[in-house]
Amino acid sequence: MTQPKLILDHIFDHEAERAGEVFLTQPIGGGRVVEFTWAQALDQSRRLAAHLRSRGFEPGFRVGILSKNCAHFLLAELAIWMAGGTTVAIFPTEQADTVRYVLEHSGASLLFVGKLDLWPQQSAGVPAGLPCIALPLAPPTAFDTWDAIAARTEPLRGRPERRGDDLAMLIYTSGSTGQPKGVMHSFERITRASVGISATIRQLLGDGPTTPLRTMSYLPLAHSFERAWIECASWVDGRVHLFFTESLDTFVTDIQRARPTIFISVPRLWLKFQQGVFAKMPPARLELLLRLPIVGRLVGRKVLAGLGLDQVRLAGSGSAPIPAELIDWYRRLGLNLIEGYGMTEDFAYSHNSTPTANAPGHVGVPMPGVQVRLSEGGEVLIKSPGQLVGYYERPDLDAESFTDDGFFRTGDRGELRADGLLKLTGRVKELFKTAKGEYVAPAPIENRLNAHPMVEMSMVSGVGQPAPYALLVLAEDLRPRQADPAVRAQVEAELGRLLQDVNRTLVAHERLCKLVVAREPWSIENGCLTPTMKIKRGRIEAVVEPAVDTWYRGDDRVVWQ
Q1: Which range marks the domain in which residue 199 is found?
Q2: What is the three-class DSSP state of 307?
Q3: How far is 186 from 165, CA to CA, in rounded Å?
Q4: CA distance linking residue 101 with residue 397, whole number of Å
Q5: Which regions of 200-350 does DSSP assign to beta strands (E)?
Q6: Which residue has the higher pLDDT, 55 or 296?
Q7: Does the residue 326 lie in any domain?
Q8: Closest Cα partner for 108 from 155, 42, 41, 63?
Q9: pLDDT band at 295 (very low <50, low <70, confident <90, very high)
Q10: Percentage of the chain surpassing pLDDT 70?
Q11: CA 367 – CA 353 distance, rounded (Å)
């Protein structure tokens, strides 16, 4: 019996049929780039696959990749697959203790070290004696290099096969609470999800399968969202030209080089793009111009061109809830921004908006083959073609995570409309109880706060307190000026109005008693954000805990931390 076509089969077909077509474009500094055709990409991966095989690792061996996004991340993953191994990607912002935990927990036999900013600190987390290979663009090390190995090694020939139930990758969750968990994904399941994602993108664009597309990879490839929707969907599609970024400082140049037709981001970055626009043009003036029939279209195109998004035909947001007002704002600019929903545990293959089934504030309808229902308590339960095989060496978590009939317990609370559109209303475990004994769901309130141009991020809390409060990070353009008394007075007045506006939409026990302006922005580096830029509630609450009682004793509606 012939096994179904797997992701490697798609890749080998593209190698044969599109050998001379450019697949990857990698900036290497100074405005220079290196391009890889399908033939060149596969030749590189085949050479490293032969090297990995020569090391005599056991079947299914695990190989770590610690690197920012770059072309050789993809080429290393492909080499691992062809050699018979399983990929273990580590977020490039992780600290040494997490790097060590992932490598030791997964039983990694080797580590690829790539493009990194924190290698001097992270290197202490690499277990002594673990073989390492330095990718191009890696920081200086004494490791054997990719280029040297490729130069001296003959490429692996033929079409190396993997079984559908072989593990393709372990994806370690970003650890917003507790120790990261290793999510196991097989070749059969990542293929089904990737084929479905590629087909969904083509359907949303209304294109045939041979129309060339351009996209960018800049969100962490260690996360399932980027891995599925950018990397693996591109492997399967075959007609996607994938561009990488050099650095944050060159992002505008990089995006203008790519001129993407597909662009995927996360809510925090969509918000930062908007705030960058507002820093150049007051929101009220832009709003006025957008309302004018002809002028509005011209202004919208100019704004998108300034962001480098004027060629984008399909834009997506995922990984976390995005304020409905933000989606509406981008659509008024002329950007086709849609929201989707997926998890590491279903390889980001769950829900997506369509031209006929979409509404700001909703994450779309089930993608083909996905089943969804709500538990009695409102938890979203999913059965997806991309569903995880299980948690690596954690059968206890497997037992907790699935219903008796095989649905995954997402931990998200939701509401289903009659037309199938799903709205997320918060995390089950994020619900907290005030001193009055009533539960508050923070996420919907945070979305209302985050829609304001003065607010970059927010967190609603107040466990055991008389009423909830919200901690705010101000927009980037305001932070350097917040010590100015005049600016501070203006911010306080505007936040006071925001507090009133938000509270009008809430039931009595959810109403915020005050807004607290954070002393410094939350970041991955200070431990307040995960590598995918979700807030770490426990960490932030622990930092501010000594001051909370003082906030409640005061009468000010806006407090400065």
Answers
A1: 7-16+35-225
A2: helix
A3: 5
A4: 18
A5: 213-217, 240-244, 262-265, 314-317, 337-341
A6: 55
A7: no
A8: 63
A9: confident
A10: 99
A11: 9
Mean pLDDT of the chain: 91
Number of domains in the chain: 2
Q: Which residues neighbour 102 within 8 Å (Cβ) at sequence distance 6 or greater? A: 64, 88, 90, 94, 108, 172, 180, 182
Given 225, 241, 271, the domain boundary residue is 225
Q: Is residue 421 part of a domain?
A: no
As a whole number of angstroms, the distance between CA 540 and CA 313 comes to: 38
Closest CA relative to residue 544, chosen from 469, 491, 484: 469
* Torsions phi, psi for 461 (to 5 deg): -145, -170
Residue 327 has what pLDDT? 87
pLDDT for 488: 87
Residue 322 falls inside a structural domain: no
Contact 363, 372 (CB under 8 A): no
Last-in-domain residue among 225, 244, 270: 225
The highest-confidence range among 238-242, 313-317, 395-399, 557-561, by mean pLDDT, is 238-242
pLDDT for 246:
94
**CB-count exposure of residue 439 (10 Å: 0-12, 13-18, 19+):** exposed
pLDDT of 57 strictly over 90: yes
Q: What is the CATH number of the domain that holds 544?
A: 3.30.300.30
Specify the amino acid at residue 60. G
pLDDT at 176 over 70: no
- In degrees, rounded to 5, the angle at the alpha carbon of residue 255 between the alpha carbons of residues 328 and 300 is 35
Whole-number pLDDT of residue 424: 87
- Contact criterion met (CB below 8 Å) for 553 and 511: no
Phi then psi dihedrals of residue 351, to 5 deg = -130, 150
* Beta-sheet strands, E only, within 245-298: 262-265
* DSSP one-letter code for 402: B
Residues 521-547 pLDDT 10s: 998 888 888 887 788 888 888 888 888
**Residue in 338, 296, 329, 302 with CA at minimum distance from that of residue 453:** 329
Q: What pLDDT is stored for residue 415 in this prediction?
A: 92
Give dist(CA 263, CA 238) in Å, integer. Answer: 17
Contact 155, 50 (CB under 8 A): yes
